[in-house]
Amino acid sequence: MNLENHIIVIGIHSSRTPHLLEMLKREEQGRREVVVVSCEYEESPFDSDVHFVRVNSFTDAIEMERASLSTASAVIVDTDLDDATLTVSLFIAEQNSDAHLVAHFDDSIKRDLLHKYCPNSECISSLSTELVAKSVIDKGSSFIHSELVSAHKGQTQYSIEVPENINDLTLESIYYDFKKHHEAIIIAVHQRDKVCEINPSLATILTAGDIVYYIADERIVDLTW
Predict the structure, then answer these.
(1) Position 35 confidence tier, pLDDT thresholds 50, 70, 90
(2) Structure pTM?
(3) Do the Cβ atoms of 204 and 158 come closer than 8 Å?
(4) Stretch (H or E) spanning 190
């Protein structure tokens, strides 16, 4: 491959990867190419619009560069074993520290371990237990959580970055415009060098580079700050 600013998916999980690719294709709409890397499959089990690379090892720098690892903008690691996911994730972080690293774990201990050594990574673990408890207390919670992360239809969570040419502004100054003009609700803000804040105060000061998370029917592409 000779790609830049693309998404690499490492590992093929029979029950997750096909759905993951469909969501990525719908979200990206051709903006970024998607490359799947596998040690097990000899040929791609997916449609031709998804690139495929067969390697002998996920931690072989020369082989992984066939997927243009060094120029990827995002890497998703989802192997069948948490130990392998942890090892591969650490390797990826060393090879391309600029890429957005997302890893899936079943074991919360290994999830926390990766986040400790790679603070910028996003470590995802199963929320089924938490959702069961939440649904018992607040009926319908499982539907809401499922709807918010689904890329296929309905109200979904998106994010947008404050442009570099924008002066500092308060959350209140854009909060009502999001709802009035785009039927969107701001739910969180991630400011530089701070943890993501859910349901932030309207007095929160936003600066260039901060990320605003919102719920809407479609991604906002024509926002006027």
Answers:
(1) very high
(2) 0.75
(3) no
(4) strand 185-190
Contact 77, 10 (CB under 8 A): yes
**The last residue of a domain, from among 91, 126, 161:** 126
Residue 23 has pLDDT above 90, yes or no: no
Whether residue 136 is predicted with pLDDT greater than 80 in this model: the reply is: no
Long-range contacts, stretch 146-152, CB < 8 angstroms, 24+ apart: 148/215, 150/23, 151/22, 151/23, 151/26, 151/27, 152/22, 152/23, 152/26
Residue 38 has pLDDT above 90, yes or no: yes
**Same domain, residue pair 221 and 116:** no
- The b/e string for 53-81 (b: 16+ C-beta within 10 A; e otherwise) is bebeebeeeebbeebbbebbebbbbbbee
Q: At 78, give phi and psi (nearest 5°).
A: -145, 80
Q: Contact 104/85 with Cβ under 8 angstroms?
A: yes
d(CA 218, CA 175): 17
Same domain for 88 and 164? no
Show the domain range for 41: 7-126
